[in-house]
Amino acid sequence: MAEYIPVRIPGQALVAQASAAITGGQLVYVSGSGTVAPATANSPAWLGVAAFDAALGTDVTVHCGGTQEAVASGAITAGALVVAAADGAVSALAAVTTPTAADVTNSRAVVGIALTTAADNIVRVQFIR
Hints:
- By secondary structure, the protein is mainly beta.
- The chain contains one helix and twelve strands.
- It has two domains: 13-63, no CATH class; 67-127, no CATH class.
- The strands form three sheets. A five-stranded mixed beta barrel has the order 1-3-2-4-5. Strands 6-12-10-8-9 form a five-stranded antiparallel β-sheet.
- A hairpin with a 5-residue loop joins strand 8 and strand 9.
């Protein structure tokens, strides 16, 4: 192969079809082939943040990578690892004292590191992928 052009450059947006109603600012995950929906709790298939509201079956722009703002579910302290939460929000990764299989799954759902402190409002997150 003489030249290669990437499908997407990290930190830039991509477009996918909404498989459910999406609100701008929600964390979305890959819900099917070419589709996204609001992320669910501890979803390891999270993709990025929706740029705007989108109805079922319409296209939505998703901002991937980089620093994003997301809705906090519960208290999050700057420096905490955050994971996908219900309804496209993010929450602090719970402390683990005795690891279980669920803890391994939850750690795969880490979205990034909180750059600001928040409680049920907007938190700035540095995405890890």
